[in-house]
Automatic annotation (TrEMBL):
Residues 1-35, 72-102 are annotated as: Disordered. It comes from Sphingomonas aurantiaca. This is Uncharacterized protein. It comes from the Bacteria. InterPro entries: TAT_signal (IPR006311).
Length: 154
């Protein structure tokens, strides 16, 4: 059966200013269905947004892995870290001296994820430092970096 003999089909609109092309009909009717031109324009805008957002996300992920967490934070410099991750006075028996350097977000993430040791530490000291990092709160040095490591990545 040919198209021009079917009675249940809407008539094809004539080419006009809103049909998307002077040479042929649009993909929709004039009652609100988008034209080809509108659909293509929307696709182009969406693709541009994706292209500009993805590098920003990649840069964010990179900066999170390069952020630093001091152990302990500068306001507690000189304090030792006990096995539970609490800061205690210097030379407390069973506690560990502060780390000579801050740890990178990537190092902390790896240690928290699979139990590997932080660079330059043995397993007990690393565990104490990771416990300290897990206890960080807003306002302490390294908290923002630690919080960023907790954010799910998509």
């Amino acid at each position: 059966m040919s198209d021009d003999t079917r009675s249940d089909q809407d008539p094809i609109p004539e080419a006009g200013p809103d049909t998307g092309s002077a040479a042929g009909p649009a993909t929709g009717d004039s009652a609100g269905t988008p034209t080809r031109r509108r659909v293509l324009a929307l696709g182009a805008v969406t693709a541009g947004a994706v292209v500009s957002i993805r590098p920003a996300l990649a840069q964010t992920v990179g900066s999170v892995l390069n952020c630093e967490i001091p152990v302990p934070d500068p306001s507690r410099a000189g304090s030792y870290i006990d096995p539970d991750g609490k800061t205690v006075p210097a030379r407390t028996k069973g506690a560990f001296p502060p780390s000579p350097r801050a740890f990178k977000g990537e190092e902390v993430k790896r240690a928290m994820a699979n139990g590997s040791t932080l660079p330059g530490t043995d397993s007990q000291r690393s565990r104490a430092y990771v416990n300290y990092i897990r206890r960080l709160q807003r306002g302490q040095g390294g908290f923002t970096c630690f919080a960023s490591l907790q954010m799910p990545r998509g």
